[in-house]
Specification:
The chain is mostly helical. It has 5 helices and 3 strands, in the order ααβααββα.
């Protein structure tokens, strides 16, 4: 046998399980907070995601249901149902697309604007509160 030591294959660093758990718990805490604060403003966490998607849509005239479904990573029928519920609560406006009357465009109502702004303000404060834990966990992960 050769007297020279054979090089061992490089073993990647083990994941930092504590950092992963900390990050996961922080994300769950933020999700629970968002669900609670959304209910206080008359909607669900999922409905807040819908309002946020409509608020941040790049298309000036609103989103159609297919675009909503894509943005929320859900099937078209589920997006249509969520839009229907948000519209029933007065959070959205629905209008025929002037370029294609077969499509319905989804926009925020005045109430929807107020609700998304209020929840986003509260959520931003919560993210700032949780920031140190997120940053620490992300730094530990490299």
């Amino acid at each position: 046998m050769n007297s020279q030591a054979r090089a061992l294959p490089s073993i990647p660093d083990a994941p930092d399980y504590r950092a992963l758990a900390t990050l996961r718990e922080g994300l769950h805490e933020l999700e629970r907070f968002t669900e609670r604060i959304s209910r206080e403003h008359g909607c669900t966490g999922s409905m807040f995601e819908l309002l946020l998607a409509v608020k941040t849509a790049r298309r000036g005239g609103g989103l159609d249901i297919g675009m909503v479904a894509t943005s929320l990573r859900m099937r078209h029928p589920s997006a249509a149902e969520m839009v229907r519920k948000a519209d029933a609560r007065g959070l959205l406006t629905l209008a025929p697309d002037p370029d294609d009357g077969r499509r319905v465009l989804v926009g925020l109502s005045d109430l929807g604007e107020k609700v998304v702004e209020a929840i986003a303000d509260d959520q931003s404060s919560e993210v700032r509160r949780l920031r140190a834990g997120f940053v620490s966990a992300l730094n530990a992960l490299g």
